[in-house]
Amino acid sequence: SSLSGVVYHYNEEGIHRAETGWEQCISIPLVQPDMFGLLQQWDTLLEEFSVGEAWLPHRYEEHDHNCYTYALAFINSVLTAQGKQQMSKNEFTEKFVIPQAKKASKYITLHQELTANDFYIVPLPDQEKQC
């Protein structure tokens, strides 16, 4: 996504930019907050990458040239520009996707158990209010 939260995604109709509709997705942070230079360029890099010929609608292929390929190719283009080694699909999945999916699964399971057993989640009062 862009810094403002616009989600870029690729399917058989090409590249899309969406400000809504992704509220239930898992966000995987890729850029550390101290990488100020990259953060300043992020939106430009994402837009320039997304208009490339590789992401035209007719090039979409469900198994080999899809949204996952698009995301990984963008990440690898940023890594290359930084002089770093590219990641394989397996490496990206193991390092970034699986850990976040496990966290989400635990949260969803906990939430389901609490709501199924008539427990309620109530926010704690602010620390200032306790004094």
Quick description:
Residues 4-114 form the MKRN2 opposite strand protein-like C-terminal domain. The chain is mostly helical and 131 residues long.
What does this structure look like?
The chain has helices at 36-50, 67-81, 89-116, 127-130, and strands at 7-11, 14-18. By secondary structure, it is mainly alpha-helical. The chain has a domain at 7-87. A two-stranded antiparallel sheet has the order 1-2. A hairpin with a 2-residue loop joins strand 1 and strand 2 (14-18). The model has no long low-confidence stretch (mean pLDDT 89).
Write the layout of secondary structure elements.
Layout: E1 7-11, E2 14-18, H1 36-50, H2 67-81, H3 89-116, H4 127-130
Largest beta-sheet characterization: 2 strands, antiparallel
Q: Tell me the β content.
A: 5-15%
Taking Cα atoms only, what radius of gyration do you get, to the nearest Å?
Answer: 19 Å
Q: Strands of the largest sheet, in order across it?
A: 1-2
Q: Give the total of beta strands.
A: 2
Count of helix runs:
4
Oligomer: single chain
Mean pLDDT: 89
Structural class: mainly alpha
Give the proportion of residues in helices: 40-55%
End-to-end separation: 40 Å
C-alpha geometry: globular
SSE series: EEHHHH
User: Which stretches are poorly predicted, pLDDT < 50 over at least 5 residues?
Assistant: none
Pfam families: DUF4796_C
Protein name: MKROS protein
InterPro entries: MKRN2OS-like, MKRN2OS-like_C
Organism: Oceanites oceanicus (Wilson's storm petrel)
